[in-house]
Amino acid sequence: MIPISDDNPTLRTPVMTYLLLGTLGLVWVFFQGAGFKVEAMARSICDLGLVPGELTGRAPLGQAVPLGDGFACVVDADAINWLTPLTSMFLHGSWGHLLGNVLFFWVFGNNIEDSMGRLRFLVFYLLCGLVAAAAHVAVDPTSPVPTVGASGAIAGVLGAYLVLYPRVRVNMLFILFIFIRVIPIPAWGVLIWWFVLQVITGLPQLMTLRPEVSGGVAVWAHIGGFVAGMLLIKLFVNPRYASQRTLWRHRMHPNHP
């Protein structure tokens, strides 16, 4: 089930959305080697990825986390660690990781930017990403494992979309064996289902007997970012822009909610 578009036209060119998408792509290709340069990938993830145990001081210095191909991340006390909640949200671990984030951001980000303006949107995006990072650290404060990805910040965009445009139709691509079809679904159905999946996936991490269980995905960063987006959107939305968008959407799709 993949979102490919929505019935939610924009009034202004989403310049900041394009700039953020371009930045993610450029960092992946030129700084991380597009996944083909193993040393560049390992170095970027180890040096600029978010390691909860480094921020809290609860992971032993010198502890190594194997990355494969003879590479490992070692817990350190470098000053740059304090910037990793920010730097980590511009890095990715694979092509699939990057493309998945880009697709969700492409579908939902332009409308949120259009509702608040470019600079507000940038601040909102970064703030949601930082809250997502804080949620990840809070759930597993001793972890020596580096985390990267824009998912937490993009989850904030999804939370904002749920608040502002719950009834807008999102065109979802369904692929089940030979069954392939695009089906429009209200945004609230798509986004609540996505959020519930994150919670279900993340619950094992809260078990006291197995706090290390994570499945390799920082789902509590997704949850934290999503909730932050829902709570912060009313502070960042521009009422005039939102009103203009509502009128324009009704003109473009008079039979849609």
Task: Give structural notes.
It is a single chain. The protein has helices spanning 15-31, 38-48, 52-56, 84-87, 95-116, 118-139, 151-164, 187-202, 219-236, 239-252; strands spanning 2-6, 64-68, 71-74, 169-176, 179-186. It has 257 residues and is mostly helical. The strands form 2 sheets. A 3-stranded antiparallel β-sheet has the order 1-4-5. The radius of gyration is 19 Å and the shape is globular. It starts with a strand and ends in a 5-residue tail after the last helix.
Main sheet record? 3 strands, antiparallel
Give the termini distance in whole angstroms. 23 Å
- What integer value in Å does the Rg equal? 19 Å
State the total count of DSSP E strands: 5
Count, helices: 10
> Which spans have pLDDT < 50 for at least 5 consecutive residues?
208-215
General form: globular
Mean pLDDT: 89
Classification by helices and strands: mainly alpha
Side by side, the strands of the main sheet go 1-4-5
H/E series, N to C?
EHHHEEHHHHEEHHH
Question: How large is the share of residues in beta strands?
Answer: 5-15%
Overall helicity: 55-70%
